[in-house]
Specification:
The protein is α+β, with helices and mostly antiparallel strands and 321 residues long. It contains five helices and 21 strands. Bound molecules: zinc ion (2 copies). One zinc ion binds next to strand 15.
C-alpha cells in the first residue's frame, strides 16, 4: 500500500508537464488514486493451488503491458467442504441440503422446501418426490451432464440436480489478475462469448471463481432445481466448483477498522469485500459497479447480497486478456 501524503503538491507539479490526475470512468465517476493497493498473492491459500502463484507478463484489456499473477486453481476448496446440495427426503432438515435463491432472498433447500415447491412457485407441475417422500435426484455424471443441458428433456422434470466433486477431479482453472489494478477509462461490462469481454467476476482466496449469474430461469423453466451448497457453490462439468453467492464461508480477511471483511479479488485486481460489515451495515456510497474508495483499502468492491444472483456489476479496472 502506498500513501501519497503530498498528493496535492505532486499533482500540481505533475500538471506543469502533463495534467492527468485521477482517471475518470463512465458517468464521470472519479477513482481517487491517493491509495493504490497492489494484489497480495500471499492471501491465496497455497493448498488450493496447483502451483505457487507466478508473476508473468500480460496485456490488459486497455492495451496496457503489465504484469499479472498467474493463479492455477485446483477448482476444489481446501477451506470448506463442498455440498450437500439436494436433500434425500422431504422429512430432511436444512443440514442435508444447500440453498436456493428467489426474489433476492436465500432459502434453505431442506425437505420442507422441496415439499412446498408447487405452492412456492404457484405451479402444480412441481412435485420432486415420490409417495415415500424420497426426492428425485440426479445420481450419475451422465445425469448431471444431461440435466445441465439448456434443452433438458422432460425425463429430468422434477429432478434436483447435483453434480458431485467426484465427477470433476481432473479440472483445474488458470487465471490472470493484474499485480496492481489499472483504473480504466471505461467501465468493463460483463458479457460472454468471443470478444464479448469477461464473464468471470473474481476469485476467492481458495481459488474458487465468483461466477456470473446462475441461469435460474432456464433451470426452473425445465422444472429442475440446481441448489448451491451453504457456501454458495455448485459444480458443472466445464467450470467445476464455482460460486453464485457469497455466504461468508470461504476464507475472509477481517478488517481492523470494522469494515466488511475481504473475500477475494475481482478480475481487475481490485479487492472484493463482503456485502455487509460486522454489524450488518452495507455501504451506501457504492458506484454502478458496486465499488467505492477509502484510504485503507483504496478502490474496492462490495459483493451483492447472497440472494441477488450477482456479485458486482462491472469492472472499473482493466483485466488481463
Ligand atoms: Zn453455476
Ligand atoms: Zn468498502
Amino acid at each position: 500500500m502506498r500513501h501519497h501524503h503530498y498528493l496535492p503538491l505532486l499533482l500540481l507539479l505533475a500538471c506543469l508537464f502533463n495534467c492527468s490526475g485521477p482517471k475518470t470512468g463512465e458517468k464521470g465517476v472519479v477513482i481517487p488514486n491517493e491509495v493504490e493497493v497492489a494484489v497480495n498473492a500471499a492471501h491465496f491459500l497455497e493448498a488450493s493451488l496447483v502451483t505457487p502463484v507466478e508473476t508473468v507478463a500480460c496485456t490488459l484489456s486497455d492495451g496496457t503491458k503489465s504484469t499479472c499473477y498467474k493463479i492455477i486453481s485446483r477448482s476444489s476448496p481446501t477451506d470448506h467442504q463442498m455440498g450437500p446440495w439436494c436433500p434425500d427426503n422431504i422429512s430432511d432438515g436444512p443440514e442435508s441440503g444447500g440453498i436456493w435463491i428467489e426474489g433476492g432472498e436465500t432459502y434453505d433447500v431442506d425437505g420442507a422446501f422441496i415439499k412446498n415447491m408447487a405452492a412456492f412457485y404457484g405451479d402444480d407441475t412441481w412435485k420432486m418426490y415420490d409417495a415415500e417422500g424420497n426426492i428425485f435426484t440426479t445420481d450419475t455424471k451422465e445425469d448431471c451432464a444431461n440435466a445441465a443441458n439448456p434443452n433438458v428433456g422432460p425425463e429430468y422434470r422434477n429432478f434436483c440436480v447435483e453434480c458431485l466433486p467426484s465427477y470433476v477431479t481432473d479440472i483445474t482453472q488458470t487465471y490472470l489478475i493484474p499485480t496492481t489494478p489499472v483504473a480504466g477509462e471505461n467501465t468493463n461490462l460483463f458479457a460472454r462469448g468471443p470478444g464479448g469481454g469477461i464473464g468471470l467476476r473474481g476469485i476467492a482466496f481458495n481459488g474458487i471463481r465468483f461466477d456470473g449469474p446462475a441461469p435460474t430461469n432456464a433451470i426452473l423453466g425445465a422444472y429442475t432445481l440446481a441448489p448451491f451448497d451453504d457456501a454458495g457453490g455448485h459444480i458443472n462439468l466445464h467450470a467445476g466448483y464455482h460460486y453464485h453467492a457469497a455466504t461468508g464461508v470461504s476464507k475472509r480477511l477481517p478488517q481492523p477498522d470494522g469494515h466488511a471483511p475481504m473475500i477475494g479479488y475481482a478480475m481487475d485486481g481490485y479487492g472484493l469485500y463482503a456485502n455487509a460489515d460486522e454489524s450488518g451495515n452495507t455501504a451506501v456510497d457504492l458506484d454502478d459497479c458496486r465499488g467505492h474508495y477509502d484510504e485503507q483499502r483504496g478502490y474496492h468492491y462490495h459483493v451483492d447480497k447472497a440472494g441477488a444472483n450477482n456479485f458486482i456489476n462491472c469492472l472499473r479496472g482493466a483485466y488481463a486478456k
